[in-house]
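Predict the 3D structure for this chain.
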Amino acid sequence: MIKLEQRWKLLWDSLGISQRTAPSFEGLERYYNAQGRFYHVLNHIGNGLVELDFANRVGIVEYPKPLELVWWHHDYEYNSRKKDNEEKSWEKLSDELIKYGLFESIGDKCRIWTLDTKHIQTPKTNDGKIIVDIDLSIFGKSEEEFDEYEENIKK
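Done. Predicted structure below.
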């Protein structure tokens, strides 16, 4: 299995952004592994990438690279006491899209999909439905995996 850092770099490269100038994996890692985070960590991202890869293999993802970029960022900001985590995560992704000249081509889609992960309403796009399914896929895992999630989400 490909390491997360390598996967992060390959994603940016596939979007035409050189690994020298792309956002660092170390910065992302610091955010996801920050003190006080127990479920919305890099392990959650890695598990979701496995699910996203499956969806890509069976050909149901319309925009694979932008959707993967959203997956990496959808929980960038996470505070269990706040209700604007997805909006804050979108702001971070939006800043990166602008910085790297990608906003005009994929910004609208990325915003919609990021906000779809609030789970307020059924997504209107197929890729939105996929990212929400991936985000909620813990509910279809083994009892042991779910129990671990339940313990971590309460912390």
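The mean pLDDT is 89.
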